Amino acid sequence: GCSGDSESSDDQAMAGGRESVELNVGYIDTSINGVGVIAVANELELWEKAGIDVNLTPFTNGPTQVEAMAAGSLDVGYMGAGATWMPASGQAVIVAPSEATYGDFLIASPDSGAQSVEDIEGLRVGVPVGGSGEMILSLALDAAGLTEDDIEKVPLDPPAVVSAFVSGQIDVAAIFSPLSDQIMQSVPEAVVIANNKDFPDVTFLGAWVASNQAMEGKQEAVERFLEVYIEANDYRKENPEETVELAAAESGAPAEQLQGQVDALEWFTSDQLLADNEDGTTRERFGALQDLFVELGRMESPRPVEEWVDVDLFAQAAESLS
Amino acid sequence: MRRRQGVSLAWLYLATFVLGIGLWWLYAALGDNELAPAPPEVIESFREGLRDGWLLEHTAASLQRVVAGFLLGVALAIPAGFLMGWYRWARGMVEPWVQFFRTVPPLALIPLVIVFLGIGETAKIFVIFLAAFLSCVIATFQGVRNVDVTFVNAARVLGANDATIFARVIVPASMPYIFVGMRVALGSSWATLVASELLAAPTGLGRMMQSAQQFLQTERIVVGIIMIGALGFAMDRLLLVLERRLTSWQEVR
Amino acid sequence: MRRRQGVSLAWLYLATFVLGIGLWWLYAALGDNELAPAPPEVIESFREGLRDGWLLEHTAASLQRVVAGFLLGVALAIPAGFLMGWYRWARGMVEPWVQFFRTVPPLALIPLVIVFLGIGETAKIFVIFLAAFLSCVIATFQGVRNVDVTFVNAARVLGANDATIFARVIVPASMPYIFVGMRVALGSSWATLVASELLAAPTGLGRMMQSAQQFLQTERIVVGIIMIGALGFAMDRLLLVLERRLTSWQEVR
Amino acid sequence: MAPMISIQAVTKVYQSSRGDVTSLDDVSLDVDRGEFVTLVGPSGCGKSTMLNLVAGLLEPTSGQVLVNGAPVSGPGPDRGVIFQQYALFPWLTARKNVEFGLRLQGLSKRERRERAQHYLELVGLGRFGSALPKELSGGMKQRCAIARAYAVNPSLLLMDEPFGALDALTRVQMQDDLLATWQQERRTVLFITHDVDEAVYLAGRVVVMSPHPGRISDIVDVPLPYPRTEDMRLSPQFAEIRGRVWRGVHHPSATSNLRGDGA
Amino acid sequence: MAPMISIQAVTKVYQSSRGDVTSLDDVSLDVDRGEFVTLVGPSGCGKSTMLNLVAGLLEPTSGQVLVNGAPVSGPGPDRGVIFQQYALFPWLTARKNVEFGLRLQGLSKRERRERAQHYLELVGLGRFGSALPKELSGGMKQRCAIARAYAVNPSLLLMDEPFGALDALTRVQMQDDLLATWQQERRTVLFITHDVDEAVYLAGRVVVMSPHPGRISDIVDVPLPYPRTEDMRLSPQFAEIRGRVWRGVHHPSATSNLRGDGA
Ligand SMILES: Nc1ncnc2c1ncn2[C@@H]1O[C@H](COP(=O)(O)OP(=O)(O)OP(=O)(O)O)[C@@H](O)[C@H]1O
Ligand SMILES: Nc1ncnc2c1ncn2[C@@H]1O[C@H](COP(=O)(O)OP(=O)(O)OP(=O)(O)O)[C@@H](O)[C@H]1O
Ligand SMILES: [Mg+2]
Ligand SMILES: [Mg+2]
């Protein structure tokens, strides 16, 4: 470390006696899980505390962040459960689980007459390709003893699923929150025929990931990011309302929508995360997700979970905080 | 330099093509970006696509849509551009909407299209049609407005009415502009393909690229880009041949 | 009908505008689609946006990008179109790429842009620039090819070299085509805005529409569409005024 | 019977970038049915403007133009026009240009072809039917435009320096052809020329115009009988009329435009 | 010293939609420095083609064209051209059209303006400097094109029926102006006209061409002294030369194109 008697009054540069490091952090600003953490970190000035000279960039989705990582423009980012196959196939490394969501639904229109997953055989099912909608559909079909060949799969853009459902172009929507709420509002008689809670074996875990380059050359910085995350995570777990407010102020997203997201998910305390990491629960859960991805054809073959889910940095971060 | 015969265009095309591939390969080899596939991987994916049939299937589906949307768009844009250029009321009523929709991103239109046209093939062709139409109508309109008044007068004194003037004076005289419009429309049609195939397309190059992007199968995206680019280029050549036949009366270099 | 003065364009624009709003309102009132917001809701959202400042902020961010991209695109397209129309080697080397990239959907380019230009403002402007450039260069190229050889000859015998012919003959003579290109480019620039703002933009109309789409704030999407449409229309009017000044030498109706 | 053409107190002001330009100032002229009137005057005196008013391609700023007793409201095939700049359709071959008007008259394909060929031969372009305008020489373009106007056989022919680009002999032949058909079909002809000789040789009446602003300065009757012959050109009477027209055109005030205006 | 223009066994074949058209067939002609040569012949005999070859705007199919002893490889400001169709830049005012060439010679803005004004006045357009071409009458356009070519003061002037659209008096004035500056500045002039009178009045040598294919059928020396005067036009010697040229142009075979070709 440097001597503390330098004339520098810039505590950002010398936070906690550590030289500050630069870090490019991406997040999804329409997700409470993304923007929520960032907003809390900003509010509590956690970046300064951890000695991170942070460069924040909002994204709309996970894949774009992975592209930016590959190009070296981004070190750390957030992605929902639907995109975690990307770290699984080696595009990045998961450094911390974020949330478990229960906001994925299979919704049947009243006109279709479908009351359960078994009934959707032969129906038109609108589903956004590559998201968690596809995953819930796959799980539901499996459980009902059906395959994709038994339905008419209609690939659609996520918002288009809503339009198509409301205007009667599809019979079933496999869609996530908050779009699912919109469907239920527009078509109150619609029937939810499947939800994450029906499949307790598979937890839809979102995650913070670090780029492969950062894992090689910037481990220290990523570790400090996790320090920020641990504190922000505990804050949001304890103060969900404030988190929603901060996130809404940060991104301009409507608070009630963000609150709606919160209602359909579960956060874990940082201690819980640490424990899950240590007893293998975390890797088990991501492993289960990976199996689903392989089944869905998003990956050819599973890779050892240790290669793409890092738990050590999280432990280090918890260590240096205490 | 007008006189020197020089190398033929085809050779230059080939040269620039080889150069492009070379640069790409170089970048892929030197750069450390895992998502930038090198030519061999792309060729491999291409062969796989041919072998497994998906490439042809996607290409055929997209080609049909683009051709249908493009032809419809152009066929409607020419009379519409004429009406706008010729009749003040038509211009006043139509132009704002054309201008308006031209600036609206196709993505933003998709919800509307679903509501009115559903998610079938019609809807997809409509999105492409709209792109082609909106690009072409502006050029045609400008062409009509730029027709030398002398020709219109000459036709009038020979007894031509508005319909005749349209068909036999305005259309040929603004042919160069119409071709600008058609070439731009062709580009727009292809460029909108992806947006149109967000509309529940089971097959199609745009669909294929969409999923490939989701799954970061970059070599497959490149295969898609190359197919679209090559088909677009080929159709553009066809337009140029047509143009040469239809505008050979011009006194140009 | 050329002679009858008739109502002015502005009135017709107003009429068609009122008609459009009316139809929309009617649809929103009669249709049972909750996703189609009625004018009052949109106006409410508009006022809210003005009050809270987000509307101006997003608009300013997007306008800057579009203006920068558009101007760059056009400024480069004109000389590029000239080179392509004038020198065979330039045509041979450049045209395939122009054709190629014109057909490639902007969405598909984003990974490439990220790789080379990152995710900053440059990258966003580049996507818009590319759209503007590619639309405009074709029109300019065609304009250059369609310049009457007589004017070129007249300039040559007065001692003009290629540079002079470009600046003082080709540019003015192909001005009507260049304006077609600029108008089309303007539309493309705006239409590509959404795609460009997929590139990690904190503010911007496209970004705003993207999030609004996520949250199904349809009235906000409509606000975005209207802002884009209105700004596009206004910029188009500017172009038309410019055009009238620059091409008043033409003998047209 | 009303005159074929009646130009009544017509003033034509062009709005141009340099302000208003008065091209015709209070001009009145009647042309009877079957008359052959030539219009002469120095460059820029408003000859083409007058012809375009009669053709219905321009509207008078004040006054009115009647054709066949009715106010002119636009161009029509009853009035054939040969433009000073030919105005051939560059995208049509010579033959197709000539056929353009015929097609509008509903003639069959065969009739069209025959008639077009007839008129092309009349102007010496029999072998150039399939040539595009850009492949024709200046004089050939002018002749093609003549054939096109003749072919529709209008009752009123408005000709703006139609023989300006032709060599002397071709010109004489064309003049005689024109006179012959005019006599046969009792057309009315309004004919602009800058050639005083031609003006007198063709016309029953020569209208002399003066510029700045465009006015009719003299109207000269040509009492020579039709058919006109080459001998007449050499007659003293012809020389005298020619002299009068010449003096009318080149009256000092009339030609002031070339030397006096810029000083 | 090499002749100013040397056309050596030049053949020009146009590739057209109708197959090959031989426009000039094995034509040779030398024009000396300071000579004034006029070119006459029936419409379509290849006059403009010949002029364009000398201007460097066309390439001979065989044979070669030398100017100042060097093969022509393209157009240049040493050879001023007045085109048959004027070729004014429609986007420039009359003054700017005239200034176009001056600007390329690097003249200052003031010099350009003065010189342009001088030549505009010379052709009687002093008050029309700010008019756009579309606002000029046919004859005025032609005069503007003349001013543009004169202004760059080229040592070789190639003029394609430059006075075709002018009335008789304006024309005579322009002829005299041309001769005056030609004598002063010892230019070389190649001048196309369809007016035999004009051809003889201006030229030291009249080249007579015949069509199908374009050939030189006669070269007539005009031994009249310069400066030419109006009186000379009335002299018997003038009449005799005029007659010879006329017969050359209108030799039966030469004019067969108008009546004989379509039959
Ligand atoms: N569109 C226009 N705008 C402004 N002025 C015009 C326009 N057309 C013609 N003029 C002016 O009107 C006058 C008469 O023009 P017009 O063409 O009738 O002459 P003209 O007698 O046919 O001459 P010429 O024998 O040279 O063809 C000229 O001074 C000309 O400058
Ligand atoms: N671009 C071309 N393509 C084909 N044929 C051409 C072309 N230009 C000229 N010709 C032909 O060449 C011949 C000579 O043309 P040119 O223009 O030299 O004649 P000209 O003597 O100038 O006639 P005019 O006095 O009528 O202007 C004509 O028969 C014409 O049809
Ligand atoms: Mg005139
Ligand atoms: Mg000629």
From TrEMBL, chains B, C:
Record localization: Cell membrane
Pfam families assigned to the protein according to its UniProt record, in alphabetical order: BPD_transp_1
Gene Ontology annotations for the cellular component aspect, listed alphabetically: plasma membrane
InterPro entries in UniProt: MetI-like (IPR000515), MetI-like_sf (IPR035906)
Entry membrane topology: Multi-pass membrane protein
Major location (coarse): membrane
GO terms, biological process: alkanesulfonate transmembrane transport
Signal peptide: none
Annotated ranges, domain ABC transmembrane type-1: 59-239
Record keywords, A-Z: Cell membrane, Membrane, Transmembrane, Transmembrane helix, Transport
Membrane-traversing stretches: 7-27, 66-87, 99-119, 125-144, 165-184, 221-242
CDD domains for this protein: TM_PBP2 (cd06261)
Family: Belongs to the binding-protein-dependent transport system permease family.
Designated name of the protein: ABC transporter permease
Automatic annotation (TrEMBL), chains D, E:
Protein name from the UniProt record: ABC transporter ATP-binding protein
Transmembrane residue ranges: none
Assigned keywords, A-Z: ATP-binding, Nucleotide-binding, Transport
A molecular function GO annotation: ATP hydrolysis activity
SMART domains named among the record's database cross-references: AAA (SM00382)
Domain ABC transporter per the UniProt entry, residue ranges: 5-236
UniProt keyword annotation of Glycoprotein present: no
SUPFAM superfamilies: P-loop containing nucleoside triphosphate hydrolases
